[in-house]
Hints:
elongated; two-stranded antiparallel ribbon; 22% helix; alpha+beta
Amino acid sequence: MTQFTEAVYTNGVLKPDKGLVLREAQRVRLIVEALDDDAGRGDRPAAMQRLLAGIDGMRFFSRERLPSRDELHDRP
């Protein structure tokens, strides 16, 4: 059963805005999406720098000729 609600994070605990239908000690999967626009913005420049450095360090090459689009899609 999938349930959707918003929650507030306070003192290390997520507090749902409404009750959830769960049994005691039931394990659940959480996907957390910040609703306020300012969340995490301070880390964005550093994250972008790490991403670009990682891309610069990648080495892609092939000793063979690259396949055509038709070869990739196995078209007759």
